[in-house]
Amino acid sequence: MLTKEQIISDSKQYSLFTWVAQKNVNPIPIERAEGVYLYETGGKRIIDFSSGLMSVNIGHGDQRVTDAVVEQMQKVSYVTPSCTTEIRAKLAKKLASICPGDLNKAFFTLCGASSIENAIKLARLYTGKHKIFGRYRGFHGNSSASMSVGGDPRKQYTDAQQSTNIFHLDDPYDFYGLSDQDEETRLKWSLDSVERIIRYEGGHTIAAFIFEGESGSSGCLHYPKGYLKGIKALCEKYEILFIADEVMSGFGRTGKWFGFEHSGIVPDMICMAKGLTSSYLPLGCLMVSDKIATKFDDSPLWLGLTYNSHPVSLAASLAVVNIYESDNLIGNTIKMGAYMEKRINEMRAEHPSIGDFRNKGLLGCLDVVKSKEPYQLMAPFNANTAEMEVMNKVGAKLRELGLYTFVRWGYIFIAPPLMINEEQIDEGLAIISQALSIADEYVI
Q1: Helix axes 227-237, 183-201, angle to 10 degrees
Q2: Fewer C-beta neighbours within 10 Å, C or N terminus of the chain?
């Protein structure tokens, strides 16, 4: 068995790590994981407060998933997509039962980005139109089109390779000096601006809008009440498809099966991954309405993947979806989300650096601020290295004390596994509290 030092050394020498200069890589060597905990090689226990990449929704190491995967591999581990299997039939039917409206057709992919890519292709095939709209502060993955349709600044380093016919909307309320207006006026003007853009670009040229059901990577930025419903109405008016990206916010993460359900809408397509298998195995899914699927009854569906409907990944997914139901994880998410909000509100008296906490179920993001009047994050959007000095210290303290989560710009993400309990929430927040003491010193 390799030592901790050998694992780190060989991993750095022979593999590449994402989103970082390779000389700066300092990976955590994980030997095993169980529930809400990761265990380093050598035994140190780490509480996972971001469910991996906001994806290990059922918690780590659930033997029921392992058993389902082994059983499937003993039957058949792979068939071509032109064949089918019992597990394909079962999972597709199960997903149709939890999706609202007529979202009854599953196209299985490999991950979230490939679900977005195929949604874009399908939208263009179905509508005969070519333009796709996303949000500047949305993120949809790191393949060509999925990265382009988001506005995450990481894409700026490969700008020359972005996909064409991709356009972006600003977030609602972020323009026209709306802060002095009442809520009804702000919502109306925000939606009016979207309709103006549709008219400028031509509704007859726009195939689809892509929105996260609930915002994630950009800071869990909440949509105003009625905003997504207004966007969906505009899509219907101009015959534009509405694609819901539920890769992060789906499968109970927000206290409902899907984040868009909080807005009372039914999209035309749903992009899934992450919680679909709780990240035990790679799998994505594009859920499509009957209305769209019917178009391809008599004409070819020009989409294809070698690993479409991979039976082993499908087996993991069906086991995971059943666990959400049998263990009442969505109910626990609602309960623990409320407890999390209560505890963070109690922490405010101790920490002047605590700003907003935006949370839906167990998809949350804590603002760390240097000033509340005016409101100023400890590190701005797309912060450079110098601007991240304080937050890097906060992140280093979290790691030192045994908590794993994402610190991005002025945000600390809080999105633990959905099976977490109050005692474990208190454990994680106690560590965050210690780290915030560093930020408190820089509040002005």
Answers
A1: 30
A2: N
